[in-house]
Structures are given as structure tokens and as C-alpha cells.
Amino acid sequence: MLPEPAEWFSTWFDSPYYHRLYQSRDYAEAQEFLGRLLAHLHPKSGARLLDLACGKGRHARYLSEQGFEVTGVDLSPQSIGAARQFAHELLHFQVHDMRDPLPYGPFDLVLNLFTSFGYFQQEAENVVALRNAAAVVRPGGKLVIDFLNTEQAVRTLVAHETKTVDGTDFYLYRHFNNDFIVKEIRFRDDEGQEQCFEERVRALTQERFEEYFRMAGLRLAEVLGDYQLRPFDPATSPRMIFVLKK
């Protein structure tokens, strides 16, 4: 019996080339967004926060600096290994797959940011992950899911582009396939070997998310449309930022 193929995120997120390709992401803009979001949600000083799919912990560190007790979890051992150098008494990092029940909590606020959802091949796994997140939200607490506006993303998909980062030419090919937005990433590694990775995000609509929320026992409080926290407009907003209450 053949072994199951590795899930794309379990290999790509641990690759040094993933971090090379995306090293120029605008973290200043991300921190401005987090600052606005905290002001909008106004969790109490000292509140317990969960950064679900925290990567290397840059945003969890920022949240901790704002006076919150923060736990960051991610399924990438390499990312959590990098994040743990910044851990302290009120900032913790753990390797964790969101499809598994969370042994941490409860939390006043759970954050799943920058399209860190919808990666799984089986749609039911999205609901399992959401239920696990909801289970660790304190009664009266909030959960925020920040996702791309898939209808706009599919409509404006750039089929091909090339990015050169630190001497590596990355060839990016995007298409829509079987309910997923797919990005194929091709490049030669530092040894000259050809490499190919994929990113796959399920094209979840607002209506599908709302169905998930009902199944997870969450109440949708509002939908924001961008990192300036303007109201969501399906035709023009780049993001769908769901604010949920338990």
C-alpha cells in the first residue's frame, strides 16, 4: 500500500525557500492592521490571546508587546523552532495542527490571520479546525478569521509572474482548480536542482464560511473588508475579516 502523499503545507512551509520568497512581506503594514484590530476589539490588558497558525511568531511577539499573554501555535516545526528564541513568561510557542484539539486555553481572543485557513484537501477538516478553535474561546470571547475575498481573487488572478529574490528566480503560476486557488512555484535551488511546490487555498465564499460558523456554534458579529477595517464589500474588498463571538 502506497503511503499518503505529504500535504503541501507540511513541506513548503518548512522549506527555506518559502521564507526566501516571502521575506519582503510588509510586516509594518501587518502590525498597523493588528494595532487597528486590537483598538477595534479592545481586549482587556493582560487578556489571553491565541495566534493560530503563527508562523515564525512575528505577530505573536507584537501582540505580546501590547500587554497580552500570547500563545502561538503552528504545524511547522521549523517555524516554531525559530519563534521559540523570543519566548518568555507571557509568550509561548507550540507545534500544533489545528485539526487536533487544542490543549491550551481558554482564550479571550483567538486570531487566525493572513489567510491561514482553508488549506485542507477534505472540506470537513475546515469545520473540525474551526470547532477546535471555538472550543478554546472563553464564553463571551471572540475569534477573528482573516481570509482573502475569494470571489475578487479568482476574478483578478494573475496567471504567471516571475520574482527574483536573493538570486533565486521564482516562477509563479496561478489557476483555479476544483474549488481551490492554486499557486505553483518553480525554481532552481542553490545547488541547481529544479524544485516545484504548490500552495492550495480553498475558494471559500462568505456563505460557506457562515455555514461553517453555524456548525461550530459561533455567532458572526461583523465582516470587515480590508486591513483599514472598512466594511466588507463583495465586489471590491480584498479581504474577508470575520469577527465571531462565542
UniProtKB/TrEMBL annotation:
CDD domains: AdoMet_MTases. The keyword Glycoprotein does not apply. Pfam families: Methyltransf_25 (PF13649). The keyword Methyltransferase applies. Residues 50-141 form the Methyltransferase domain. Its EC number is 2.1.1.-. One of its GO terms (biological process) is methylation. InterPro entries: Methyltransf_25, SAM-dependent_MTases_sf. One of its GO terms (molecular function) is methyltransferase activity. It comes from the Bacteria. Keywords: Methyltransferase, Transferase. Signal peptide: none annotated. It is an enzyme of class 2 (transferase). PANTHER family: TRANS-ACONITATE 2-METHYLTRANSFERASE (PTHR43861:SF1), TRANS-ACONITATE 2-METHYLTRANSFERASE-RELATED (PTHR43861). This is Class I SAM-dependent methyltransferase. It comes from Hymenobacter endophyticus.
